[in-house]
């Protein structure tokens, strides 16, 4: 049956979260080594869904650790042969498979240039783990669907626990996530079905969020594009108002990720402006009930820095539902494979 793997793997996420939280002490051991080295800034390398996890980690590093952070461009090493001095730099590589040649080569090169390299993967025997100095196994289990669901959220949670531990935290904000995820999946099913019916025939969608939720907007757009073949674009709420909003009209479906906190509050004017353009706006998140949207998927409240771990759940289900409604097979999107090898 089409979509059975993706559906099952979405449903597994509360149990995956509980397992990761139980392994917080193991992640804290890696974090202690990072804290000892006192990096002066962080670089994050990733592709695909993992790139969105890296974007989330960038916010965590900048806000929770107050260190500058940036997203590394693998091609500067693999194609152009650049050799920057990376002494005292944390180089964090995020890859579900740990098998992409460009990420392996970039991580190996970063270590040779003085960086403290850390691999975050779902494959502890991967080539990436073999070249990184330290590694974290996200422990999501085998993922059969091509579209990443449980591996994505497991990566987010592992990154949160790592970075929180570096600052001396105990992962308190993560403790309730398994229960909150189960609640989110059980209470939003009807709202997701309604959203599938609203957007079944739309061809153009925009996803948007601010702060931590920028990662959710990016991952939501990718899920819609790769499973339903929609022309889906993600923008920061701020960037959306700086130009792309001009392309939004009544034929555009807009998903606004709006969880309680500074990022969600900054989205209020964005949602208002987009609604005035005539777009159908779906607000998703713990602050969705208070947004001037066309429809809403309301999630249980949690600490803002872990909200992306919950926000993506209904967006995964929306992508699944739209793919099936449009006659697709979200387990096997056309032209895609589980491991993409780039250089």
UniProtKB/TrEMBL annotation:
Q: Which organism is it from?
A: Kibdelosporangium banguiense
Q: Which residues form the SIS domain?
A: 30-172, 195-333
Q: What is its EC number?
A: 2.6.1.16
Question: In which domain of life is the source organism classified?
Answer: Bacteria
GO terms, molecular function: glutamine-fructose-6-phosphate transaminase (isomerizing) activity
Kindly name one Pfam family recorded for this protein. SIS
Q: What class of enzyme is it?
A: transferase
Q: Which PROSITE patterns match?
A: SIS
Q: Which UniProt keywords apply?
A: Aminotransferase, Repeat, Transferase
Q: List the protein's name.
A: Glucosamine--fructose-6-phosphate aminotransferase (Isomerizing)
